[in-house]
Amino acid sequence: SRDDAGEIRRLDVESAAARLGGEATPTTTAGAWRRAVLAERRGREVWRPLAAAALLLLLLESLLAAPALSGRRKEPVSTPLETP
Fold first, then answer.
1. Which pLDDT belongs to residue 31?
2. Is pLDDT of 37 > 50?
């Protein structure tokens, strides 16, 4: 008997489904694969809303920290006069 451990063979759809268990969705193109994967994900991505919120917070912080825009004037720091 020949050892098939190193042999690479293509599985048919039925064999792949049996090995994966559950439902297997066969696809023939990359676009169909992407759509199948995206349809099976749980929930929606949260990175975009979080990145937008972080950007808005940074802009708000910059506006609040800018003295001219916040209505505050920066007073010059007074130093005591030196006496000889």
1. 85
2. yes
